[in-house]
Amino acid sequence: MTLYPRLHPTVRPTRLLIAAVCALAIAGCASNKGEPATQFDFGPAAPASASASTAAAPNANPLGALVVTDVTGSSALDNERIYYRLSYADPLQARTYANSRWSASPLQLLTQRLKTRIGQAGAKVLSETDASSGIPILRIDVDDFVHDFSGATQSAGVVALRASVFKGHALVDQKTFVRRTDAVSADAAGGARALAGSTDAVAADIAAWLASLDLAHR
Q1: Using CA atoms, how far apart are residues 107 and 178, in angstroms rounded to an integer?
Q2: What's the CA gap between 171 and 100, in Å, rounded?
Q3: Quick one: how far is CA 27 from the chain centroid?
Q4: Which of 147, 7, 152 is nearest to 81 (CA)?
Q5: Is pTM beyond 0.85 here?
Q6: How far is CA 165 from CA 66, 85, 142, 178, 211, in A?
Q7: How many C-beta atoms lie closer than 10 Å to residue 179's C-beta?
Q8: Dist. CA 45–CA 197, nearest whole Å
Q9: Which of 115, 169, 168, 166 is nearest to 138 (CA)?
Q10: Mean per-residue pLDDT pooled into runs of 10, the chain (218 residues)
Q11: Strand, coil or helix: 82
């Protein structure tokens, strides 16, 4: 008669438990992989009231016609990922939100919003293909565009731009603009809202700076 070794009574349940955990893990990975990403943009660009604009800059010069080129920046901003940075823990590492994306690349979103806001400020915004000689050109480079965490629960949307105005081949002026807007929540939605707020604030700063240059009479 052949004798078979008897299994310890806990062996079979243990194997079943391990198999069940593995199955759940595989199912979880598949679910996350197929989960659709939430998309964000800057929201509608509601124009500021005329009274508010006048109060903000009562002696501003008219902006006139202006060529606004597409915003340029790092290749990291030429895709739809939403970046955040844990400055309080590791400021050198940029991270991305797993299931959240911009509806277009930040460079495209910034280009459209800045053109819209500058146009609302009174400029006749032209593209490079529409411009004639002698019209001032505004070029904008992005230095930073990130949801920045200064602490585990404190964060802000940070936008840093470098704007340059040319007339012909001569540089008229150049200035760096930085804005931080506190995020209402420590997630992608809070970061997107804060970055939209900082973008609008920077756009207002750029419009005021352009008016101070009195480009129409240069």
Answers
A1: 16
A2: 39
A3: 33
A4: 147
A5: no
A6: 10, 31, 15, 17, 12
A7: 21
A8: 11
A9: 166
A10: 47 42 35 75 80 47 89 97 97 96 98 97 89 87 98 97 93 97 98 98 97 82
A11: strand
How far is Cα 72 from Cα 65, in angstroms, rounded to an integer? 21
The span from the CA of 198 to the CA of 208, in Å, is: 15
Hey, is 209 helix, strand or coil? helix
> What is the DSSP pairing of strand 38-40 with strand 94-102?
parallel
Query: Looking at residue 2, what is its pLDDT?
Result: 47
Would you give the distance in Å from CA 126 to the centre of its chain? 24
In this structure, the chain runs to a length of 218
- The two tokens of residue 170 are 């001569």
Both tokens assigned to 129:
């293909």
Cα torsion at 73, 106, 99, 88 (round to 10°)?
Answer: 60
Residue 217 corresponds to which tokens in the numbers above?
């009479």
Three-state SS string over 126-180 comes to ECCCCCCCCCCEEEEEEEEEEEEECCCCCEEEEEEEEEEEEECCEEEEEEEEEEE
d(CA 180, CA 145): 10
Joined tokens for residue 38: 């939430």
- Stretch (H or E) spanning 4: none
Do the Cβ atoms of 159 and 140 come closer than 8 Å?
no
CA-to-CA distance for 155 and 86, rounded, in angstroms?
A: 9
